[in-house]
Amino acid sequence: xxxxHSRALIxxxxxxxxxxxxxxxxxLVIPIQGELPQLLSTSASNAGWVVxxxxxxxxxxxxxxxxxxDLFGKPVVLITSAGVLAVGSVVCALSSTLTPMLVGRGLxxxxxxxxxxxxxxxxxxxxxxxxxxxxxxxxATLGVGGAIGLPLAAWVVQTFDFHALFWMAAGFAVLLLVxxxxxxxxxxxxxxGRVDLVxxxxxxxxxxxxxxxxxxxxxxxxxxxxxxxxxxxxxxVLLVWAxxxxxQDEPLVDLRATARRPVLLTNxxxxxxxxxxxxxxxxxxxxxxxPVETGYGLGQTILEAGLWMAPGGLMMLVFAPVSSRLMTxxxxxxxxxxxxxxxxxxxxxxxxxxDAPWQLLVASVVASSGVGIGYAAMPALIxxxxxxxxxxxxxxxxxxxxSVGTTVASAVMATILAGSTGRSGFELCxxxxxxxxxxxxxxxLLVPHVHQRAGAVAEPASARA
Length: 465
Hints:
Layout (H helix, E strand, L loop, with lengths): L2 H21 L12 H4 L4 H4 L1 H24 L1 H20 L4 H13 L3 H12 L2 H32 L3 H20 L14 H24 L4 H22 L8 H4 L2 H29 L12 H17 L1 H10 L2 H21 L4 H28 L6 H28 L4 H23 L15 H4 L1
């Protein structure tokens, strides 16, 4: 391997480590979720915000960070995101009450903006023949970090004080900062322009209101005034925001570009596939941990459940090079459709095989393989239809759509399981997950053919420097 390819490989490894570090914060507190009221001296309802605020912050920051990467340069945004992750993790590590913990968790959520910007940077600095594999691996970190985070966090809290979770995250962030500053090239890729502050605030308010209503609907009640009010206000704000953005010369999100058929349909497919991915992440652990006395539960501890789920998460990374080869041979559109189809098959396996941990392991591995294939193909479809100057923003919107899918899945699955008894609720969840995945297949097949590979869209910036 020559020097250029060696440097490119190191760049991809560092960026993937950053993606893993950011995404594992999404599941970092799951093992201690039931203990958070006691640990933070607050109510169970208030403690739920420790999870919710991270998801909301991540959803808001991804399209905004993508646009900032286009304006000021992707390396600047990546280094800033790593710094925010470090600060947020330290704040959490020093917190024993609710308010500072929420501040730290919100900052950790903001660090999720690292992922779409890193994907866009890979296209610029990695040789075209390596770009698909790099993009596939980086995309996989969205799922891998969350999957690895569960057993890792369970082990940490069983061995140390819960603050060790956040010191660990801070350590990862510091290592990431060192890697970004010393090993990752920093091309002069800033496009310049004006920051659409009004658009950023409008998007943030609208998204937070809608996602808040969706995520808290089961807790508050779907017909509760708070839930309906949040959803209505969020939709109205987003509609006003869209009208405002269409009138801007330098909008935060180019809605006309996102309305192009390849981009629009890929983003719609992202919602469906994101829904399918999150459904298994919620349902399978609950089934594994349910008491045997229920007649359907498998009686596993949190750590054991995490270990049964971990191979599925690793499969997402294993299938990154497979997805790369598929994108090269048959194109990203068919690769995404295949990934969604495999995800759906995984849910069908779970529907019929849910009587032993090893059976759910098989189902999780199949479903996660589909996620690994599909998630890698989405950025290629987006970048194949987007000029390099808008890549960060477009990828941020795509990541947001996946986040919308996972948030909706979380609410739907929790509502179904809370309203059902016995095995039937889990079977319904698996059936809905399969249906969402197969809907993703249909939508993807409607996407117009993308002729160029993601890695071939533009000359790498490293070659221009």
